[in-house]
Amino acid sequence: MKLSITPKRWLLTAHILFAAIMLGNMVTFLLLSITIANSENGQLIESSYQVMHLLSKTSVKASTFGTIITGILLSIWTKWGLFKFYWIIAKELLTIPIFALNLWGMYYWTLQAFELIESSGARADIFIVQAELWIGIIIQLISLLLMFGLSVFKPWGRHTTVSK
Predict the structure, then answer these.
(1) Where are the domains of the chain?
(2) Predicted TM-score of the model (pTM)
(3) Quick check: 48 pLDDT over 90?
């Protein structure tokens, strides 16, 4: 089944919106992490982790599932296919770490940091959690920017083993 132009545009619009929300979430995480790193205010730090944890339970998960589902539907219901083009395969490979980081990492790390702050945990433990969170945020931002670029430039052409 191939979509006609109007349903395809609606599905593409939904896909772009979900992806934009994912990027916005990670920019928010980045800004809150910078705030935490530059603050001595315990209440501000705790609130920042609270906001990140709330986002990880709601918007991060919803936008991740929304982007993946609409991306798969776009691939299946349009000429692009799931494995016909190298740029789509590259996006699929970049989706794997984002999926894991969004559904597990962001939730776990923000919960752990929030609990450590509440219980006046050891500074070394909080530093480790902050470092893990920073790594996750950076990986996601780089992956998302690469996927946006791949979607725009569509490099590398068609996969040779797939028939036209």
Answers:
(1) 5-153
(2) 0.89
(3) yes
